[in-house]
Amino acid sequence: MFTNTLGIIGSGQLGSLLCQAAKKLKIKTVVISDDEYGPAQNYADKFIYSKYENNEKIKEFIRKVDKVTYEFENIPVEILKEIDKQKKVYPKPDINKIVQNRKLEKTFVNELGIETTKWAFIKKIEDINKHLNLFPGILKSNTLGYDGHGQFILNSLKDVKQDWCFTTDYIFEKKVNLKKEISVIITRFISGETFIYEPIENVHIDQILKYSKIPANIDKKISKKAEYNAKLIADKLDYIGTMCVEYFIDQENNLLVNEIAPRVHNSGHLTINAFNISQFENHVRAVCDLKFEKTQKNANAEMINILGNEIEEYRSKTFKEGEFFFDYGKKIIKDKRKMGHLTILKK
Ligand code: ADP
Ligand code: MG
Questions:
Q1: Could you tell me where the beta strands, DSSP code E, fall in the chain?
Q2: Is the CB–ligand 1 distance for residue 117 below 6 Å?
Q3: How far, in Å, CA of 305 to CA of 341, rounded?
Q4: Is ligand 1 within 6 A of the CB of residue 246?
Q5: Could you tell me which residues come within 8 angstroms of residue 269 by beta carbon, excluding any fewer than 6 positions away?
């Protein structure tokens, strides 16, 4: 069925950029969000402010849309499944069950024969003592992490306080001696056709993405392998829409999957200006079952994430040709919060 109205769950910068991509395709958007100030309300045709557990509001949302997608993966799967009974939700809710849970996600990737960091599932403090080979490592909450939230670096057993009381499950991951981080963004259509954006090189500071660029300065073999694995993952998940695979490259040139993001991704913001069709537009095209259009790169690019009060300086700056400043219009400035980004096109 032709999609006139796309429902989007979540109202941050990713939701905003999805709304703008939909508008370009003449598709209306209804955004539902539990953030009263979510910036996507400035771009959506309709905005519903509500807790996701509010049945009445979810019903109103369902009535108003033809299809549904989401900008973040931490929505309870049960809510997505309820919506999916009435209006198709893409990517499919079951995918989220895997991807929002680090243990299931890594198991899924490892079972495809794809390497990840070495890791162990941690339920109680004593479990850490059984994995001395993983030191120095990072303890990550098994679910609900983003931008480094819920992560603790443990350099040695001394950092493990025996009176810690775990109220949630964790995984403990060996710290990789990173040479580089890259990501591969792929859009998969209902027809099974895929478009793979070339690998993007990323720099994180304090576990938050700060810089991205294309082309990634990596050898061809790693680049091909990263693209191949991303396609394998998308095909196996029967994924519909845009997703991202984040990778680590260690000092020995091993390519390791860090995590899968079942959504458009911050590292792909540069696709807005560097490609004829961005990751956002391809996502909307895929979930709304529009035709796949040939996607190609127009320019190389770099992207800088603007965090916290850095935004103030950018708001008064003038930009040169080939520089594109995005202000997400977030009302509250918080330390390390993603407030905007700048993309610079390169020859
Ligand atoms: P989030 O879900 O918050 O994005 P990630 O697991 O992707 O969490 O971690 C964020 C960043 O922290 C990574 O991109 C990387 O820079 C750093 N990091 C996370 N895990 C490791 C690891 N095992 N070894 C080295 N660096 C890591
Ligand atoms: Mg990450």
A1: 5-9, 28-33, 46-49, 67-70, 119-122, 137-141, 151-154, 170-174, 178-188, 194-196, 200-205, 208-214, 241-250, 255-261, 300-307, 323-327, 338-346
A2: yes
A3: 4
A4: yes
A5: 17, 212, 303, 326, 341, 343
- What pLDDT does 40 receive? 98
Contacts of 56 (CB under 8 A, 6+ apart): none
Encode burial over 9-47: b for 16+ CB neighbours within 10 A, e otherwise: bbbbbbbbbbbbbbeeeebbbbbbbbeeebbbbebbebb
- Any atom of ligand 1 within 6 Å of the Cβ of 175: yes
Report the separation in Å between the CA atom of 25 and the middle of ligand 1, taken as the mean of its atom positions. 35
Residues of the chain with pLDDT under 50: none
| CB of 120 sitting under 6 A from ligand 1 | no
- Tell me the whole-structure pTM to 2 decimals: 0.96
- Residue closest by Cα to atom 12 of ligand 1: 207
pLDDT at 1: 57
- Ligand 1 pocket, 147 CB below 6 A? yes
Short-list 90, 86, 66, 146, CA closest to 263: 90
How many A from CA of 290 to the centre of ligand 2? 29
pLDDT score, position 166: 79
Residue 150 pLDDT: 78
User: Which is the closest atom of ligand 1 to the Cα of 176?
Assistant: 24
